Amino acid sequence: xxxxxxxxxxxxxxxxxxxxxxxxxxxxxxxxxxxxxxxxxxxxxxxxxxxxxxxxxxxxxxxxxxxxxxxxxxxxxxxxxxxxxxxxxxxxxxxxxxxxxxxxxxxxxxxxxxxxxxxxxxxxxxxxxxxxxxxxxxxxxxxxxxxxxxxxxxxxxxxxxxxxxxxxxxxxxxxxxxxxxxxxxxxxxxxxxxxxxxxxxxxxxxxxxxxxxxxxxxxxxxxxxxxxxxxxxxxxxxxxxxxxxxxxxxxxxxxxxxxxxxxxxxxxxxxxxxxxxxxxxxxxxxxxxxxxxxxxxxxxxxxxxxxxxxxxxxxxxxxxxxxxxxxxxxxxxxxxxxxxxxxxxxxxxxxxxxxxxxxxxxxxxxxxxxx
Length: 371
Prior knowledge:
The protein is 25% helix and 36% strand. The chain is of the alpha+beta class. Strands 4-5-6-10-9-8-7 form a 7-stranded antiparallel sheet. It starts with 9 loop residues before the first helix and ends with a strand.
């Protein structure tokens, strides 16, 4: 349901499986200049030659001996380019890939979501351990972690350079076997990260102001819902009044502190029931409501926005309300009686298991609690 910034480490799984068998790759567009990494401190790094991949949107250096990987094998349109060591010395092939997604998420926020995903949900990674995350210039960031590749049991060091830029989010992911990383690979990684340059003049040299970063943080949930609604409601779109309400009350979506939960409760118009919403949702698209019912189904998934829960309840009027909550619901399970507070977002219908149609209200959830 939700558009994701692809967990680009998936590429490493494909490359581990294929090794140097990717014979059908199209040669990269390369500059004729070969740069030598003079600053490297190990034998491997000092002898590494680099080529430059130069595309319309960006350019990046990569080891001259690496070959371009045919990214059509991945069925991931966000992957712009990928390179792989065709002659790995271990079972894991060192590799580089660059992805780009339309998103206003910040590097820090995305790093937190990725770390949580790698630690809890990434089945293609075992024993992920964060080595460090550090903020870089222009609101970018670098995430470094280590994990075990399940199929080969090889230890891998993952470095991700996270770069937000004017509504786009670039992730430069470098995955190296630990032995390779420790034997000069780190210097190679540093050079590749340092070489990454955005070429589009509209990106203004990747300079994103602190004000823009704050604005992005305030619009995260609203932006998420602009993607959710068209996927739920045929020809649907998030109403401007709902978008503005979520942004104006961004601290309440979700409300995670005791103070914000108290504010969310105070925002509720207790005169509005599900009967009002099912009669005509339009007058209430910028109003906090409270709805209680038994959970028919609760599901959680990892997305570019972090853990997102979908909660389908049936209330005392036998009305179906589907809540979208940006966060985990904790110990809440199917069958529990819960109260959701949030802003009505859309009315729609879906096919039910009995072959009929169920009418429902979509709610952007501020708080959820088990009764």
